[in-house]
Amino acid sequence: MKIDFGGMFFHAPGSSIPSEKLLKDMSIPDTYFVRQFPYHFKDNLQFSDDDAVLESLKEYKRLGGGTVVEVSTVGLQRDVERCAKLGEKSGLNVIMGTGYYVNSMQKEATRKFTVESMQTFMSDELLNGFHGFEGKYYPGIVGEMGVTAPMAEWEVNHLRAAGGLHEVEGIKNVPITIHPGRAPESPFEIMRILTEAGARPERVIMGHMDRTIHNYDELVRLADEWKCFIQYDLFGVETSHYQMANCFYPSDGERLNRLKHLMDNGFEDKLLIGHDIHTKHRLEKYGGHGYAHLLRVVKGDALSVVGVSEEQWNKLGVINPQKILQF
Ligand SMILES: CC(=O)NCCS(=O)(=O)O
């Protein structure tokens, strides 16, 4: 079979990539399998190619990006110095987090930590700087605090530790960002535990909403009952098959529809967006969308297809992040 589709050429918006390169890269093997099963490939899970990250960050900056929030916490082998260097080289602000990822990713010794010791670890880093970089580099956020469903007892404890930070002098306003369990009731349970421990719900970000709550009424209920920030941070993942749970990943279009629904219900000041790039295949070098995708593609669709106004888009990408990140 042969088709000449050349008459249908359309330039990609804002792209610095020559169109010949796009064609050549279509020969990359395994693309289909990596997209469907990104967590199957061990090399894909080693997010450690600094050149590929830097190239992607520079493209994000070129299209108008200014800040990256990098929320790898204990359990994800966070690397403060590396992130600081990438920030310097790319010219972007990089905000990093303190805290703990999910129970299954922890060392046995970390799982023995108490609420008190975890709270001390986090407050110490927030007030004095990352351990090993005291006085030089400071966290700007707590989390992502990793939670599974059902919740492990240790995760209940690290949530209590994080919630209690809002009662500590000097950090009462610190933003706390959450990786919820993959069940629709998880965000509600997390908010209850955090607030019982002292957290101010309006200083909490509920992340990964893309794959967590799929019912529109329940989304509105979460925003209404808890007044936390609601974050769609898996933009660019356009594969509906989801390896990690028995549900579909929404498309970018559906993410925008859900955001618009929340806007229409009065929550446009409580919404955040992002890419949560944590596997290699999502970087341009490996055939992915990279950090510039929201600015390159999603913004145009939000405005022209979904009916998001310029003012609302500015809230998603600039005003709301400024509000939650300042403390
Ligand atoms: C880094 C991380 O945990 N990202 C979320 C991936 S998930 O599959 O959507 O939970």
TrEMBL record:
What does the UniProt keyword field contain?
Hydrolase, Metal-binding
- Is the Chloroplast keyword given for this protein? no
Organism listed in the record: Oikopleura dioica
State the name under which the record lists this protein: N-acetyltaurine hydrolase
Which cofactor names does the annotation list?
a divalent metal cation
Write out the catalysed reaction. Answer: N-acetyl-L-leucine + H2O = L-leucine + acetate; N-acetyl-L-isoleucine + H2O = L-isoleucine + acetate; N-acetyltaurine + H2O = taurine + acetate; N-acetyl-L-valine + H2O = L-valine + acetate
Q: Which family does it belong to?
A: Belongs to the metallo-dependent hydrolases superfamily. Phosphotriesterase family.
Pfam families reported for this sequence: PTE
